[in-house]
Amino acid sequence: MAALTEAASLGAFFAIAVGGPETGWRPADDAYAAGVQTLVEATALRHCTAEMRIAASITQLGHAARLWSPVLYCAVAYGIVLDLEELQQAESGPRLRLPAPQGHRAPDDGRLAQALYQAVVVRHLDRLAAGLRVKVAAGLLYGNAASALAEAARTILAARPELRGDLVRLTEEMLNTSRLAGTGRITSADLDFRRRSCCLYYRAPNGEKCEDCSLASKVNDQRIGESNWRKPH
């Protein structure tokens, strides 16, 4: 519980509710099976777009961020692989909840990256992708997953610079794991990232190219407040 409480102090994407009333939540698997359609439709309304694949991409990107952020923090700061088997999603929004805090010690055999990949991508993001009611390219979705991972790592690095060594090594290893491999590359010592795909946010009214987008002319070295890829969420 201490690990999750500390993670939540880094921002909304790092926060997972634990315990409390059961009402207002549903199993994440149910949301995936329904294509997270309620969230996709709400996202489309919020961004005034009729192009549902834009809304689906933005929704999936936000969910990936809410998964990777606490999972990565618990792994690098506490040596814990967070158990998301019983993960729930709010019925009225993207917030996440665990009935109880659960996890296990990170493996010491060099397989931590694979354990985190299984916990986040295989257990959750693959299922979300399979349930979407609108066709979105796999390369885009796993590019979103990589972008969310890299931004979570950047946020942790800014807050906990003493974790740099383990954090950088783990992030680089994760970005070379299975379907995340080839989605982009780290471009600086501070874990700036350039992806090979585009999340489509720029196609929404008032949207723009994110700082790590393959379509952007350059990566901005100066970031003020939350980075562009967070804006849709």
Task: Give a structural overview.
With 233 residues, the protein is of the alpha+beta class. It has one domain (2-217). It is 44% helix and 10% strand. β7 (184-186) and β8 (193-195) form a beta hairpin. It is globular. It starts with a helix and ends in a 38-residue tail after the last strand.
| Tally of discrete structural domains | 1
The low-confidence parts are 218-233
Write down the overall mean pLDDT: 89
Largest sheet, strands/sense/barrel: 4 strands, mixed
Q: Identify the strand order in the major beta sheet.
A: 1-5-4-2
Strand content: 5-15%
Order of helices and strands: HEEHHHEEEEHHHEE
From the helix content, strand content and strand pairing, which structural class follows? alpha+beta
Could you give a quick summary of the protein structure above?
It is built from seven helices and eight strands, in the order αββαααββββαααββ. The chain has helices spanning 2-8, 28-33, 37-46, 52-78, 112-131, 138-159, 164-174; strands at residues 17-18, 25-27, 80-82, 88-90, 96-98, 103-105, 184-186, 193-195. The radius of gyration is 17 Å and the shape is globular.
List the helices and strands and how they pair.
Blueprint: H1 2-8, E1 17-18, E2 25-27, H2 28-33, H3 37-46, H4 52-78, E3 80-82, E4 88-90, E5 96-98, E6 103-105, H5 112-131, H6 138-159, H7 164-174, E7 184-186, E8 193-195
Parallel strand pairs: 1-5
Antiparallel strand pairs: 2-4, 3-6, 4-5, 7-8
Helix pairs in contact: 1-4, 3-4, 4-5, 4-6, 5-7, 6-7
